[in-house]
Amino acid sequence: MTRRIQDKLAAIVDEIDRTGHANQMRLTALKKWLQQPKRLQRFALSLAARAARVEDVADGEDPCLLDLARNLLGDWSLDAPAPDRVAAKILHGRLKAFQDEYKRLGWGRVRTIQSKRLLIIEMGLEVFLYDPAGPSEGYRLAVAFCENYDSRYGTDLNGPSRDRVLELLEIVDAVETQERSEPSLAA
Asked: Of 11, 25, 84, 179, which has the most beta carbons under 10 Å away?
């Protein structure tokens, strides 16, 4: 019997509680779940909307971009219509341009990210707008949303990641509940 995605996400939370961290590769379980039609876009918009709703502005964040993101996504929920595509494209372009700085390292170019929250909004809009090749983009977005740097564990799922994984669990439950209420979307 296969384990439900909710059980797998709960197991990640349990591991963080028990050991202090969990490997971010455990989130690959989302890839199979995201293969269902419409899930990837709903998941991506949900994460982008959650990132946009946070009120405080951290160092390295552009308050104007955050206001634009809040205006577009702040009230968005799974039962609301999709955000305006033209406004989403404009915001996506501005977000990408804001963090369009690269550093050359020995093995290639690396993008400099000033704001993880703006990156999550950008990635979520990219999935919504451009229909990526597959669920791998949803996995990458989930990792960006959940990972946390801690000198004891590196960049992994630890500390604040626990609450973020619980947020993923809420989104998964909400998407599945919506699918059950819309028989044409259920798999």
From this structure: 179
